[in-house]
Amino acid sequence: MRLALPLTLSITRVVVVEAAGALYGVPVALVGGVQRVPRAAIRAVKRAESVVLRDRVVPLVRLRRLLGQPEEAGEGGTDCVLLAELGDGPVAVAVDDVGERADVVLRPMTGVLRGLRGYAGTAV
């Protein structure tokens, strides 16, 4: 069997994460680890949050907040945190859940969505 894909498509390995009921893929190459962090361990620093991971203070961003989705209410418990290794340094990303790794066909955004920051494309 032979599969011919257009040059605009690529196959990428991602870690599937969930936020506000929707699934997103984070490239495996950017993921430095995944762990559950007690909410009490997340500290507010000015207007931002941070957490200590691997003996380093790492800025924390919430995927729901980045997407403009409502925050999950609740004190105590734990947050699922994905450690992303970016060019500027590590960033902890709080997500609702982490799924399996998957190979996806990545299709670049087109039209008005082409310049949208933070998205590489859509997965088939």
Describe the structure.
By secondary structure, the chain is mainly beta. The strands form 2 sheets. It has a 6-stranded mixed beta sheet with strand order 3-7-8-6-5-4. It has a 4-stranded antiparallel beta sheet with strand order 2-1-9-10, with no helix packed on it. It is elongated. The two termini are 20 Å apart. The model has no long low-confidence stretch (mean pLDDT 85).
The radius of gyration is: 16 Å
Provide the spatial order of strands within the biggest beta sheet.
3-7-8-6-5-4
Mean pLDDT across every amino acid position: 85
Total helices: the number is 1
Largest sheet: 6 strands, mixed
Distance between the termini: 20 Å
Q: Kindly estimate the percentage of residues that lie in beta strands according to DSSP.
A: over 45%
**Proportion of helical residues:** under 10%
Overall number of strands: 10
- Which structural class best describes the helix and strand composition? mainly beta
Order of helices and strands: EEEEEEHEEEE
- Overall geometry: elongated
pLDDT under 50 segments (min length 5)? none
